[in-house]
Design goal:
Layout: H1 7-39, H2 50-77, H3 85-108
Helix pairs in contact: 1-2, 2-3
The structure holds fe (ii) ion.
The site of fe (ii) ion (FE2) has 3 residues, from helix 3.
């Protein structure tokens, strides 16, 4: 992604590349994780608790994405300057929480390494 994007273009990119993708893919990932956890419950590499973490992430992401869509992004499109500090600080605080959840995913999935005998799900 070019570093010279205008705010409006950057917002459009975030919405289509990230927000739309999270909303489309996370529910399917949760469903697949529940299936894998149930079917392979006895397997030592089965990611026990993965679906619950993904479910939490989806809930927190939905709130986070709404903050951008309803508050920060419209203000940025209007080029409101000083009033952006608080919503930006909030969004950054949310991102710190997302990093924690990604660390949990790393632990649960052995750094996203699929076991050699894993099924398609
Ligand atoms: Fe974000």
């Amino acid at each position: 992604m070019p570093a010279s994007l205008e705010s409006g273009e950057l917002i459009d990119h975030i919405l289509t590349r990230y927000h739309d993708t999270h909303r489309r893919e996370l529910p399917e990932l949760i469903m697949l994780s529940r299936k894998v956890e149930a079917v392979h419950a006895g397997h030592s590499k089965a990611p026990a608790g993965l679906a619950d973490v993904l479910q939490d992430m989806l809930g927190e992401l939905e709130v986070h994405m709404k903050k951008g869509e309803l508050i920060l992004f419209p203000a940025m499109r209007r080029r409101a300057g000083p009033g952006l500090d608080a919503p930006i600080a909030q969004i950054r605080h949310d991102h710190d929480g997302h990093v924690e959840q990604l660390r949990k995913l790393e632990r649960l999935t052995d750094n996203f390494i699929v076991p050699i005998d894993a099924c398609r799900s």
